[in-house]
Specification:
The protein is mainly α and 991 residues long. The termini are far apart. The chain folds into six domains: 79 residues, Arc Repressor Mutant, subunit A (Orthogonal Bundle); 79 residues, Arc Repressor Mutant, subunit A (Orthogonal Bundle); 121 residues, Cyclin A, domain 1 (Orthogonal Bundle); 81 residues, no CATH class; 256 residues, Serine Threonine Protein Phosphatase 5, Tetratricopeptide repeat (Alpha Horseshoe); 112 residues, Tetratricopeptide repeat domain (Serine Threonine Protein Phosphatase 5, Tetratricopeptide repeat, Alpha Horseshoe). The chain is globular, with a radius of gyration of 34 Å. The strands form three sheets. Strands 1-3-2 form a three-stranded antiparallel sheet. Strands 4-5 form a two-stranded antiparallel sheet. The chain contains 51 helices and seven strands.
Length: 991
């Protein structure tokens, strides 16, 4: 049996003295003298409430003076010298008698944030009233505005009505002092005091890792003083690892060129996990974890140098650029004033001049190509800096601001941010790589879960009318995945919960842990005990759904609805039908929603139903977009809805919109866990980057997900997905790693309990394997998916598409379709279309046409059947019948771009090339980046060549080649082969 440690705290007169400032040294020594040991959290806890920055500062002082020691991780003990010091402090009044106030040189300005920052740095803490009273006498409005500004920037922190400076605030304080006419020696003395505090610790670090170069030491010290370890302590438990990360940044500096060390080599040499190193470099440098900015100078894929803002090199670079920009601007204005014809400034000449200068005295000549790209974004940074400066100190700074703004406008004409490098690379194309989006079906936020229903007002009213405060805590822990804490809370509050409340909460825990058989057993007990209540049927249906037992899930939902026509059960039934019989899902929602037009569960499920409809992927998104925007307006704090909107962008191939939406609205915090939201955001971001060919950015998200949630199956799926599609598309051949791709999928599979989600993992893996390993391996894996979820028709369709990519497998796939007709008669329309296409691919177009014509008797409004029928008829030379069929498809959906592409193909086959070009152009106007676009450009090539318009033919062919690289190789081959033959016949442009 473990004994709980009870910490003794100082009396009130020591913690909150009558005099102004606390003596933190005395408080810490008192606690260590009167306890066997104390932990970091003991000092931060009530009643002492020492802030992290203050605590770090005084612990380091006491350790360096030999008064205390850190015996093991997180435990501090007093030494014999510390006991002597404590005794001296007991008899000595060491508390300061008054507050320190800023000198007149600072208070003569009205920069209240400077006054406040000075006060916080030079006093242990300050209270609100300290700023209101003489001699400062800041008015309430200004005080509130400026204190909040410092709090927002994390330069100050508030704890129990006491304001203290943070480590970032200390850095800002010294930066602020340099704006005033103060004694430079005094400023230096203050900085030296800070260095003395860490000298002993840093010296040991340098000795241990043999850091002997003064420049590296100096850069390291500069960072240690400005980057507060306590800010990352919750995630990075070892402070030595933090120091190693700062050492990496100190070594990889342009002054050290050509010396450089990669993250991989550094991790091996200095014994730090590579994922930890990569993650925190990204947080510090790119995500601006600290107030100090870093600039990256990328030399190649392996070499990046880091420049810290406000350091010597950056200051000198800024001065040089400022001088050139001033010259650049003055001469432009002079030219304009003298009535000369205004010639826009030559940004390239400016860059050439700056490069010549800085590569002669600041940077090595070899870095010139990299610096050219770097300078464009750096000049933008300076322009933004002066544009947004709160106040310019003097006339010179005002001129500087105007000059940079003028250059900024010139740079904007080239494009900004990452697009600013237009000077050296072409603009980004909105086309995308073909991926596989079914994996989003495995996100916890896709379907309404037991946790979601638990949070709904009607559910709480029906089953959780009491214990509101306790259940709110439970709700928070559940959404953040803190199941252990929920278990403890339940155990400690059993007497306060009703039987049904306890059963509901136990079942949620079973489900979250993947203990589905236990959940089935418990929900059966709920149904037996409370047969007239809908909760047992609802929860059991969800459990069966997660097990991939759709028929059982549907049966139990129907049984519940026969007893209680509850809208939550209707929503659950629709969720099942989305996977089992999609056509009926929207029907049952629409039957009920008229009576409950504002019901959250029905609206959300209707959105999911519309978004997952096949037509949403290829048509307009007006209806689902209207629905999700309505939901977000009604429930603005629901982060799941924000993710769902991003998924709508993804299924309609608006990948940049999806990325931007997540970046603006969801910000995962590695210091707080919210797995349902964070994992979804990571998957969306990695997917959108990959779809746009941004492999390195996708890898960055991989690292973040692995670090934040190393034990979440989707973290491994994200890694497997990114590396898998790298094998398919060769984004970066040096980083191609087949073993890693397979290993990550296996890790995810070993962690997941839901058979439904497991089947999706195997489905994605088979999709990638079909492109990398071929038919046999892909079929083996997709069969595992089918075995896990034998009632999920979409998994079978993936198997059919694998067959379709191989000419020698068409006979087998025809037999497979017959099995599907028998197993899923309600999916007859889609099965019919795939079967007809197989006949067409085999060259048996006549049988393909017959299947479609028979199908249209059953599904007379199937626009996709009409489209395919038109193509097949055209292939047989029946152009009038083909035109009639495609016009019927267009009448049903006049905004479907692919139908105009098909119409163009019919006209092309009929050798009506000019009319065909009109239809192809119309298709591209409606959807310039549609899945069919590569095919459209190839057909345009043939049309233009047939008309003798060779320049346009060449242009279209080049566009087609570019787009074809983004199509899955298997799918690419299926569409291109026959077209290649017809183009080769023209014998003018080789394929």
């Amino acid at each position: 049996m473990s004994i709980t440690k009870i910490t003794r705290y100082p009396p009130e007169e020591i913690i909150t003295p009558m005099k102004i400032n606390k003596d933190f040294e005395y408080i810490i020594l008192w606690m260590l003298y009167n306890n066997e040991y104390c932990t970091w959290s003991d000092f931060k806890s009530k009643p002492v409430n020492i802030s992290p920055a203050t605590l770090s500062k005084y612990l380091n002082i006491l350790i360096s003076n030999g008064y205390i020691e850190k015996e093991k991780k997180g435990e501090y003990k007093i030494t014999s010298e510390g006991r002597s010091q404590y005794t001296e402090l007991q008899v000595k009044d060491s508390l300061e008698t008054s507050l320190n106030y800023p000198p007149e040189v600072i208070t003569k300005t009205r920069e209240y944030d400077h006054w406040i920052l000075w006060m916080l740095y030079n006093n242990a803490y300050c209270k609100w009233s300290d700023f209101l009273e003489p001699p400062l006498s800041i008015n309430q409005s200004s005080l509130s505005k400026n204190l909040n500004l410092l709090l927002d920037k994390e330069f100050a922190e508030k704890d129990n009505r006491e304001y203290r400076v943070t480590r970032d605030g200390e850095t800002a304080y010294f930066k602020m002092l340099k704006k005033y006419d103060l004694d430079r020696q005094s400023i230096l003395d203050e900085e030296i005091k800070r260095v003395e505090v860490i000298t002993d610790k840093v010296g040991k670090f340098f000795d241990k890792y043999k850091i002997e170069e003064d420049e590296i030491r100096y850069r390291f010290l500069n960072m240690v003083l400005r980057l507060d370890y306590t800010k990352v302590e919750a995630t990075l438990s070892d402070e030595v690892d933090f120091d190693k990360i700062l050492l990496f940044l100190s070594i990889n500096h342009p002054d050290n060129y050509p010396n450089h060390i990669t993250t991989k080599d550094f991790a091996l040499e200095y014994d730090i996990k590579l994922t930890t190193l990569n993650f925190f470099i990204e947080k510090i440098v790119e995500d601006k974890l600290y107030a100090i900015k870093f600039f990256m100078l990328k030399v190649d894929d392996r070499t990046t140098y880091y420049i810290q803002a406000e350091e010597r090199l950056e200051k000198m670079l800024s001065v040089i650029i400022e001088d050139y920009i001033r010259k650049f601007t003055y001469l432009s204005k002079f030219q304009k004033k003298n009535g000369e014809e205004y010639v826009p400034p030559d940004i390239n000449q400016l860059l050439d001049d700056v490069l010549k200068d800085i590569c002669s005295n600041l940077f090595h000549e070899d870095l010139k190509p990299s610096l050219r790209k770097f300078l464009v974004e750096y000049i933008e940074h300076l322009a933004y800096k002066f544009e947004t400066e709160k106040s310019l100190i003097n006339h010179t700074d005002k001129i500087k601001g105007i000059a940079f703004q003028n250059v900024f406008e010139v740079i904007q004409s080239f494009g900004t941010s990452e697009m600013a490098s237009t000077i050296s690379k072409p603009a980004e194309n909105d086309s995308y790589y073909f991926l596989h989006n079914r994996i989003f079906d495995t996100l916890d936020i896709i379907y309404l879960s037991k946790i979601d229903f638990f949070q709904m007002a009607e559910f709480k009213k029906d089953y959780l009318p009491k214990n509101a405060e306790f259940l709110a805590i439970i709700e928070d822990k559940l959404t953040k995945g803190s199941l252990a804490k929920v278990n403890d809370l339940l155990t400690n509050n059993l007497e306060n919960l009703s039987e049904i409340e306890l059963m509901i909460l136990r079942d949620i825990i079973y489900t979250y842990n993947g203990e589905f058989e236990d959940s089935v057993g418990l929900t059966k007990k709920i149904i037996e005990k409370y047969p007239d209540e809908y909760v047992g049927y609802l929860f059991q249906s969800i459990t069966y759904f997660l097990m991939g037992r759709f028929k059982d899930a549907l049966d139990i939902a129907d049984l519940g609805l026969s007893i209680s026509s509850n809208v939550l059960l209707v929503s659950q039934k629709a969720q099942i039908l989305i996977n089992y019989d999609h056509g009926k899902a929207l029907e049952i929602i629409d039957e009920v929603i008229e009576n409950y037009p504002d019901n959250f569960a029905l609206l959300r499920t209707k959105f999911l139903t519309v978004m997952t409809d096949k037509d949403c992927c290829i048509g307009t998104i007006d209806e689902p977009l209207k629905l999700i925007n309505l939901l977000i307006d009604l429930y603005p704090n629901d982060s799941e809805l924000l993710i769902l909107k991003a998924l709508l962008f993804i299924v309609t191939h608006k990948y940049k919109d999806a990325k931007n939406w997540i970046k603006e609205n969801i910000k995962p915090n590695v210091f707080e866990d919210d797995p349902r939201i964070d994992i979804a955001a990571y998957l969306v971001l990695s997917f959108t980057y990959l779809a746009r060919g941004k492999f390195e950015k996708a890898l960055n998200i991989v690292r973040m997900a692995e670090f934040h949630y190393p034990n979440h199956p989707l973290s491994h799926i994200i890694t497997g997905l990114v590396h898998g599609f790298n094998l398919v598309y060769n984004f970066n051949t040096e980083k191609a790693n087949r073993d890693l791709f397979r290993e990550e999928f296996q890790k995810a599979i070993s962690m997941q309990q839901s058979r439904k989600k497991l089947s999706r993992y195997y489905q994605l893996e088979s999709y990638i394997l079909n492109e990398t390993d071929g038919f046999d391996e892909a079929i083996k894996i997709i069969n595992k998916a089918i075995e896990l979820s034998p009632e999920h028709v979409d998994i079978y369709f993936t198997k059919a598409h694998i067959y379709l990519a191989y000419d020698d497998k068409q006979e087998e796939v025809l037999e497979f379709y017959d099995e599907l007709f028998e197993k899923f008669p309600h999916e007859g329309k889609d099965i019919c279309m795939m079967k007809s296409f197989s006949y067409y691919a085999m060259g048996n177009t006549t049988d393909g046409i017959k299947i479609l014509e028979d199908g249209l008797k059953i599904y007379p409004n199937s626009k996709r059947m009409f489209n395919n029928l038109a193509i097949f008829l055209s292939n047989l030379g029946k152009f009038d019948e083909a035109k009639e069929a495609i016009e019927k498809a267009i009448k049903i959906d006049p905004l479907e771009a692919n139908f105009y592409d098909s119409y163009g193909e019919i006209l092309m086959n009929a050798k009506k090339y000019e009319e065909a070009i009109e239809k192809f152009t119309q298709a591209l106007i409606i959807n310039p980046t549609g899945w069919f676009a590569f095919h459209t450009f190839l057909k345009l090539t043939k049309c233009y060549k047939s008309l003798g318009m060779l320049d346009k033919a060449n242009t279209c062919y080049e566009k087609a080649k570019f787009l074809i690289e983004k199509v899955l190789p298997g799918k690419r081959k299926m569409y291109v082969d026959k077209l290649d033959e017809s183009i080769k016949e023209l014998n003018k442009i080789p394929i």
